[in-house]
Amino acid sequence: MNQSKPIVSLAKSWLWVIPAIIGGGITVLTLFVLPPDRVIDGLVEFIFKITPLVTAVFAIALFPKKGNWLGALLVLGFIFYMGYIDSAYFIQIGNLIDAAIADTYQQQFPTFYTFHIFVNSFTILLAIFAYRLGGANAARVIKVGLSSILIMISGLNDLSMWVMYPWPEGERPFVFHWASHVAVFIGREPNLYHMLAFLGVHLLLIGIIFWLPLEKWIDQQKVRWQLNQPSTPVAELTQ
To answer: Which is more confident, 76 or 71?
Structure first.
């Protein structure tokens, strides 16, 4: 009898906790400890702010998808959204309007923007979590999750705002001075051409992610790892 099997099974069931704690800790720091800041000043700050999303994707990919109770976790996500995020978002908008009236808009906007990013991130991750509970394997969750992050930081929303916003006198700015996350990579405030190229690169990266045989690589690592375990049943190698 393989004495290590229960320990291995327990480790596999709770491995997702490690990235979840890392991502959750950084999220708490960003929302409640560090001063809100809309501008990204360097690559280190960019990596720090994107880390919770990446760790959350891997936590979801490792999360066990067996058990009749798991659907309740998704419902809890909906409850959290409607019970907290929905109301908090309205409060943030109200605070922003009050700040505009009081001519303190610039001081209030970073707080609103930080919460706005949190809402976007939560919405994306909840969808990925539902995908995982629906039966998606770890490789597919990682592909969809990383692709979602790339879309989030691709500048697509900056370009759509550029198109949709009613700019004064109908003149759209050529320079996207607010897109600091793009400036980090090109070393200057991006213009329209930079933004289009930045979006194109991210779409290309998404294509590469879906092209990579990640499922095959993960399956190969599982087989190699299981072959090193004593008394591993042959049937388990193909699961």
So the answer is: 76
**CA 122 – CA 120 distance, rounded (Å):** 6
What gap in Å lies between CA 221 and CA 215, rounded to an integer?
Answer: 10
The predicted-structure confidence for 25-42, as pLDDT tens digits, reads as follows: 999 999 999 999 889 999
CA dist list (Å): 188 to 158, 159, 178, 202, 239 = 16, 17, 11, 19, 50
CA angle at residue 225 from 209 to 214, to 5 degrees? Answer: 10
d(CA 64, CA 12): 8
Burial label, 208 (beta-carbon count in 10 A; 0-12, 13-18, 19+): exposed
**What is the rounded CA–CA span in Å between residue 3 and residue 9?**
11
Phi-psi region of 189 (alpha: psi -120 to 50; beta: other; left: phi over 0): beta
